[in-house]
Target: Beta-galactosidase
Amino acid sequence: MITRRLGGLAFGGDYNPEQWGEAVWKEDDALMREAGVNLATVGVFSWALLEPEEGRYDFAWLDAHLDRLHANGVAVDLATPTASPPPWFTLAHPDALPTTPDGVRLVHGSRDTYCLTAPAYRAAARTVASALAERYGDHPAVALWHVHNEYATLCWCSHTAAAFRVWLRARHGSLDALNEAWGTAFWSQRYTDWEQVLPPRATQWHRNPGQSLDFSRFFSDEVIAAYREQRDAIRAVSDRPVTTNLMLPGYQNVDLWALGREVDVVAVDHYPDAPGLDAAADVAFAADRARSFAGGRPWLLMEQGTSTVHAGDRVLAKEPGEVLRHSLGHVARGSEGALFFQWRQSRAGAEQWHSAMVPHAGPDSRIFREVKETGAALARLAEVAGSVVTASAAVLHDSDAWWALSSDGLPSSELDYHPALRRAHRALWDAGVVADFAHPEADLSRYRLVLAPALYLLSDEGAENLRRFAAKGGTVLVQHFSGVVDGRLHARLGGYPAAPLREALGIRVEEHRPLRRDERITLSDGSHGTAWSESIRLEGAVAVASYTHGVLDGSPALTRRRTAWYLSTRLDAVDYAALVGELLDLAGVRPALPGLPPGVEAVTRTGERHRWHFLLNHRAEPVSLPRPALDLLTRRRVDALPAGGCVVVREGRQR
Amino acid sequence: MITRRLGGLAFGGDYNPEQWGEAVWKEDDALMREAGVNLATVGVFSWALLEPEEGRYDFAWLDAHLDRLHANGVAVDLATPTASPPPWFTLAHPDALPTTPDGVRLVHGSRDTYCLTAPAYRAAARTVASALAERYGDHPAVALWHVHNEYATLCWCSHTAAAFRVWLRARHGSLDALNEAWGTAFWSQRYTDWEQVLPPRATQWHRNPGQSLDFSRFFSDEVIAAYREQRDAIRAVSDRPVTTNLMLPGYQNVDLWALGREVDVVAVDHYPDAPGLDAAADVAFAADRARSFAGGRPWLLMEQGTSTVHAGDRVLAKEPGEVLRHSLGHVARGSEGALFFQWRQSRAGAEQWHSAMVPHAGPDSRIFREVKETGAALARLAEVAGSVVTASAAVLHDSDAWWALSSDGLPSSELDYHPALRRAHRALWDAGVVADFAHPEADLSRYRLVLAPALYLLSDEGAENLRRFAAKGGTVLVQHFSGVVDGRLHARLGGYPAAPLREALGIRVEEHRPLRRDERITLSDGSHGTAWSESIRLEGAVAVASYTHGVLDGSPALTRRRTAWYLSTRLDAVDYAALVGELLDLAGVRPALPGLPPGVEAVTRTGERHRWHFLLNHRAEPVSLPRPALDLLTRRRVDALPAGGCVVVREGRQR
Amino acid sequence: MITRRLGGLAFGGDYNPEQWGEAVWKEDDALMREAGVNLATVGVFSWALLEPEEGRYDFAWLDAHLDRLHANGVAVDLATPTASPPPWFTLAHPDALPTTPDGVRLVHGSRDTYCLTAPAYRAAARTVASALAERYGDHPAVALWHVHNEYATLCWCSHTAAAFRVWLRARHGSLDALNEAWGTAFWSQRYTDWEQVLPPRATQWHRNPGQSLDFSRFFSDEVIAAYREQRDAIRAVSDRPVTTNLMLPGYQNVDLWALGREVDVVAVDHYPDAPGLDAAADVAFAADRARSFAGGRPWLLMEQGTSTVHAGDRVLAKEPGEVLRHSLGHVARGSEGALFFQWRQSRAGAEQWHSAMVPHAGPDSRIFREVKETGAALARLAEVAGSVVTASAAVLHDSDAWWALSSDGLPSSELDYHPALRRAHRALWDAGVVADFAHPEADLSRYRLVLAPALYLLSDEGAENLRRFAAKGGTVLVQHFSGVVDGRLHARLGGYPAAPLREALGIRVEEHRPLRRDERITLSDGSHGTAWSESIRLEGAVAVASYTHGVLDGSPALTRRRTAWYLSTRLDAVDYAALVGELLDLAGVRPALPGLPPGVEAVTRTGERHRWHFLLNHRAEPVSLPRPALDLLTRRRVDALPAGGCVVVREGRQR
Model:
């Protein structure tokens, strides 16, 4: 693991020295030492410098930076530069630029201007990755390989169409099978030749949902294939671990379960999209997802901002203390360090307003002081490296379900996926419970409670898996509009959800009744729902709460059969939290450190001989600790968490 | 008429057996019998199956289904499949795909992916229609031909440009006339060669309104020509009636008056866009339009949903009882039956969430039970077939005016057309009065009251027609921004509206004064207006109500000269209803059944010897009848309408 | 000057007789005399008539109109018709049509359908302008040349790309310099061949801000070059002055400082975008800008509407009296007349709803009566021609800053430019103070107070200029997010704003803290701010007001060092007005006529021997004058301004 090479947790960020000159490099060296930086990501956007014309490489400048960093005690996470092809490449290979569903070929002038399926691009990417790996495979500074950057660019061009067809042949075997899967008997869409099959480009009205879903699956596989090519080229000449960084919030173009299996360490980028407590909850949401995609193994926070909160049409600043608190929030949930984009705020270019470790204002600034504080804290936590985080509650997550919920023609625009997952995770976070994410077909036996929101698509295997989980006494909450289509997007017939799950839940959903925009209904237990309702028949379950109005008056809204619960509306946050709280009680899931007030987060990492309790106070007032403890960050005995402060306590582990 | 062949009213829906297999077909047979289905629309989306490659037909599967249906007592409304060309066709004829104003050629993958003006498409459509007609022209199951489906796809490609030019030559005769009509002296748009004339594609700023209007007229004519080609091909070999189904709400691409003259029976599709009482009013609005387009003759509700209310970004469910109530709402206003899209809810494809007669949940469901109830009711109403509905009030409707109100450069975005018609119809519906729609140039002598909302464009003939109507004592209400341009979109000079109408109204509108968004004004009679105001001079009229604020303070808002009224603002619904109520009184128009509470609808169909009163209770409480009556639906004597219930009463006609 | 030729102020408008016939022309002659029209803009949209096919000119019709106008005492502002190429031109030269960033080539059918960089277009424009100038260069009716109309059309085609490269070579000298300026080291954008450089077309994500800024600069230069070509062709054969009309509100495609230097008289078009007092303030805003672009010399209001207030999705009417009040509002601030678009409201075409001097309703109308009243008023003000308006307060304006604030990737969408300038100007207008606009690098010594809102980009020269201004005792208010990037969009390092200005202000801005949408903060002096806040360190300044919440609690919000003020948030209008009022007091700037109530505007024009005070009452009540005076408009002694009325008073000047 990288922490062994670093001798502790990773701390640092993207380092783009090519934007600066000699004098600044000297200052960088000094400031990195001052801040405790031990890992720098280099070369993410350097293709144009590394290969100024096709086939001619200029490594001299990079040699110098790597040597300098190494001499300064900073290891390097060396990036392949393939996320941003240089202008000469796109001029020579216009067919390797991405094309929109409308057929508009985008041009150079931003970043990510490549078509992942274009042979010229794939070849160029392999070649430059190989050249880098050959040059630096054994460089003592290199601790990690960073393939590409935030794979995300979709394309609908003719290369993509050709690749899509190859993928479809492999998946479906025959056109007959594809026709059956996509339901092409409807709307006269039956394909009689592979050449007729296209990506879901601009068309007259609704697109075929099966086609759209398969296109998402195809593109995810294509991303993974592109990653593998570079990874394998690197592995051929270097023994250092290889990864690629995933953009977490809303990152929908890749199945992260699958990608997680391909990287040596899961690395994620995380930028919250709301300030304050919401940002803290979002840190936990991202970190729990990252750890889950890593299969529970340690992972790495590759990017965060020192002062970047994306809030719609503006970028809010972080509050004092959040650089440390967010960093420790990630470490607490399994990250082996905390890295930032980027070391020094760009003077020019499209991200000159993206925050950095050294802001425009220079080192004499609040931000750089907080960066140093955070570097010092991480240095003191070297011992937690390699320890793990365990959870007894899980939220189900499946990219297929996410993609499926992007289909045209769904009955309501309020059938969201990502927000539904966040609401489920937030309810657990508010209750002080650390949660995993789990694939519906994964082994769930380690969990006592499983939440299944927005699981529109649920495969036969997934449905059987959930049935089995409940049958063995696991508590499960299935939420509205879940399990209604199978893995081919075919609707479940005879009543929703999928039969084995229906049996476990003891219900049959006969009819969906979307609520009107802004309609808010009351259930018999006084809770409130929006967006959705369903007509349910009890077939073994009891109604825990019922609808109280209109057609559904008296009809079950929330049901239970033994440990299997079904919720047919979108509860208000407070009511949903109460329900989840009740389920946690019933399932016997307890918070890591009970008795903490709201806004104080406690998470435990477990090593071979110790446990480390991370206590993060997101409140503006100090909070007393249950009992005095030695704080690893300050090496002092403390009996309270300061306002906005953090304490890490080591505890011996009874084995 | 089709009802003669069926022996009563039509009941059934679109039937797409190609989406299912043997076992389901068997169940279909049984369930259709159970539900009283006597008519199924077959083949709407079957081109890919019927003609799996160019020129090779496969009729065997369709033979089998038609024979099966026939054996089961279900007649067939046989569709030509031309609304959804198969993938092989679009691959072979990319020029037959539709192109957007931006020049984006859409691709296969949805439905309606054809360019109506492409010669290859038109030829293929004629050919497949002929082949079908030859095969099934005499089939005993076939009761009706259903050409295409919801003609709606616009195109801006070069085929369209060429066809547009041919149409323009025919309409205008010369380029000089076109230049004069379109006012090309402005903005240096004078055409000197036909080749210069284009469809209104993407351009720098406002498009020429004359060009846009003529393009709408051209496209409507093109639709009708395309329909005629198929109809004539069918008529050549079959004696069954021919129609095409019109999509009613907001269906703006075809002049339905013109299309109504071409079909053997007007057939419409109707999906309400709001729940509850609004849906009921919308049923009446659609049905009255359909009957009017049919020239007062019986027509056919070809599609509705068992549980489909399109409400913006979601599809709401229908309430219990609405399947029957909406169906009878259509029948009461002249439909010879009630059909649905579709028989069985699709398992896959883009409309898998569209409601159906047999839902995903299967026949053991509320929806199927209501379907059966509706089938039974229609069976008991066989005797009403062929009877008619008469009205003594009318709302003026002209596609030219609608299209004209879509012009660029109008003074306010609140100058709506379709909503204005709905408001006018709703005021009459709320008053219990059945209304026709009438073309401004039509014979209006059968009406006592005519409402003219949003009649921006009014031809010289139309203006003279309205003047004559008023001169003969007809009560007419002309509403704001009406009669301001002539049939070529040239503004009326010297004061609006068109001179003969101005004289009848006794006013001269000098100036339009659009109101600000959310501005609400008060008139002297306490009523309120939004969106619009006008500066009016009285030239023979009296002011019934005046403006009370600002520039227009004291100036006439609502005027009257004998039976000719002019309203210069958009009144609030309640005030507008009061005004329409007053006009009804003055005109001597009475509801079909006076004394009913709001939300109870009464409509009368008149046959040779009987009248049938349809009473529909849209309220949640029972309502007493004026006197006990024999209900044809239950064959029982009733003295009240149950909550949400329907009663149909036969009455002998005194001749 | 044109007023010498006219013998007074200009009055009239665009005249498009080609839309009408003989009878109307006769009426036009009479009505123009009745209204006092002395200048008509002819030929703006006449290319198709003037040159009905390439190289063949038809001048006969124009000869006749010019002779007729001349005979009627109406001088002509003769337009080159190049803003609207005729259909034959675009058919022959499709490459001369504009192309969007998406690559969509727009078509004929609107106006402004040309690509300014297309060689064919430029050649055709020069040729038709030359032909016109040769024909009419000496025509006695011609008083002014009107090149093109509202230059505004952008393009992203390959001609544009080529021209952009030529411009970039000239500006930057080398690719190295361009790479440095645009910061292409970031995102691997380094250019190695000029062919790689493109206009900022549709790309994957954020565009390079340097590229976008240079494209704006390039396009502005291209507009000026195109203008110059026509101007020089005209000057070669005519001695009449030459101008082009600028569209003022939001007109962002041309650097109006630069264009102002190229025209013989600055001519602007102005349409307010809100009714009432806002419209009056907008008149002053536009007029002060126009005068400033003219370098203080008289200018000309080339277009306004008699009843056109563009308010989002609708066009509101003007109130009675506004035709005169707006016209005098422009004249008071230096316009040598008041012209309208257009003389007679179009009967057809895309602007048939644009108001005009003679409306559809004809001369017997409120609008024409107000037109006549305005014509009479201007005739009585002939003596003010040539006089000037002086100001001792200025608002800084720089197109570079405006363009820069359109960059992708800025930290908030509320960093607006044009609205910020309007807010600054409005505060001065509300205080009764006439303001100039000034370029940041201009000589500011004539001003006592300078406001610098939204000056995101500030060159080194500009920063030094402001420092010098303050050092000499000038009062300056620099507002948030100003001075943060230099002329190449490179961020100022070490703290904002640019160093010399930072020193003058005595502050260092360390951090930007955008506020949340709808967040409203309170400062220590009770004022309120929205949109933005900053973390400031005092380095010589004092805090006049501080933040009172959160991170910035107690930190300076408004600072002052001697006469140099810095405001780090966007104050509410009332608070901002109070601050500007205080600065006016401190700077010793007094309104033209103190003591007037709000809504009464007073502006002074100064001639060689007289001063003329324009008093405009925008209120609905009469207002007493400080002392009785002779009103030039009525030639009567008045002691009050009527409600909504205007008075102009001449005063002898003490020299």
Observations:
- The mean pLDDT of chain B is 97.
- Residues 600-652 of chain B form a domain with the Immunoglobulin-like fold (CATH 2.60.40.1180).
- The CA atoms of residues 427 and 577 of chain B lie 5 Å apart.
